[in-house]
Write a structure and sequence with these properties.
Blueprint lengths: L17 E10 L5 E7 L20 H4 L3
Antiparallel strand pairs: 1-2
């Protein structure tokens, strides 16, 4: 399922989101990095703010402070 900002309806839940490949970054105790899938349904009943940032070097300029 794909959702975009214009799919949102006031008073209704946001469609579920699942990222199967490298969805969540896990930082280990030795600063090692691993990844796991991520699913918004794990937060059912809770209010969260999710910030999704493109992980491509071409997107770096968009997220670098001036």
């Amino acid at each position: 399922m794909m959702a975009s900002a214009n799919d949102l309806v006031d008073g209704q839940r946001v469609p579920p989101l699942k990222i199967a490949d490298m969805g969540e970054l896990i930082l280990g105790s030795n600063d090692d990095i691993s990844y796991k899938s991520w699913d918004s349904s794990q937060f059912d009943g809770k209010v969260r703010i999710v910030q999704y940032i493109a992980g491509r070097s071409s997107a770096k300029k968009k997220f670098t402070p001036d």
